[in-house]
Design a protein that fits this description.
The structure holds two protein chains of two kinds. Chain A is an all-beta fold. Chain A contains no helices and eleven strands. Classes of the chains: A mainly beta, B mainly beta.
């Protein structure tokens, strides 16, 4: 399995602080994606970063990718209570004519008002 | 708004029953996926399909089958449900080309008693 690993497993911060989550993976990838999941619901795509990119921004989100270290980080700035959710990284790779998106186990973020 | 619809939000079945989980997308996506999500294990890919009547096994296909008779519909079948198939099941779809972002349904929480 190519499963990525998020770190930490759980994170609790005060509203207004920044939250940083990390993801490590094992093999070469085409891109890496971050998703968010509110409790008991489906996942929602946040941001995609391709293997030839090093940093990407979307609103209060900043994603970095270091392919030499096989790692990525997701930074949420000025967090809000509504950011409370689980966050998953997913790695995309192609091989043998097929393609899959493989998810990590997630980081559970709690933002305290 | 793009939409992936899973037929049931909650489902309770008995051991040995045949179970159908239905998923419909309205985005004309070629790729569709079934994942299961369990605490501590993250999302694991069961089956995926990149075309009508095409299917490929994911990481954990045992005990499951799928059907893709129409482009918009992807069904997951549990031939004989067992208690270890109690889980959250998530359907997703994506654009052709692979490695693009996934759109998820809201999930079906299946309990097998």
């Amino acid at each position: 399995s190519q499963q990525g690993e998020e770190d930490p497993q759980a994170l609790s911060i005060q509203e207004g602080e920044n939250a940083t989550m990390n993801c490590s993976y094992k093999t070469s990838i085409n891109n890496l994606q971050w998703y968010r999941q509110n409790s008991g619901r489906g996942l929602v795509h946040l941001i995609l970063i391709r293997s030839n990119e090093r940093e990407k921004h979307s609103g209060r989100l900043r994603v970095t990718l270091d392919t030499s270290k096989k790692s990525s980080s997701l930074l949420i700035t000025a967090s809000r209570a509504a950011d409370t959710a689980s966050y998953f990284c997913a790695t995309a790779y192609s091989g043998a004519g097929s393609y899959q998106l493989t998810f990590g186990k997630g980081t559970k973020l709690s933002v305290i008002p | 708004d793009v939409k992936v619809t899973q037929s049931s939000r909650y489902l309770v079945k008995r051991t040995g029953e045949k179970v159908f989980l239905e998923c419909v997308q309205d985005m004309d996506h070629e790729n569709m996926f079934w994942y299961r999500q369990d605490p501590g294990l993250g999302l694991r890919l069961i089956y995926f399909s990149y075309d009508v009547k095409m299917k490929e096994k994911g990481d954990i296909p045992e005990g499951y089958s799928v059907s893709r008779e129409k482009k918009e519909r992807f069904s997951l079948i549990l031939e004989s449900a067992s208690t270890n198939q109690t889980s959250m099941y998530l359907c997703a779809s994506s654009n052709p080309g692979g490695n693009e972002k996934l759109f998820f349904g809201s999930g079906t929480q299946l309990s097998v008693l």
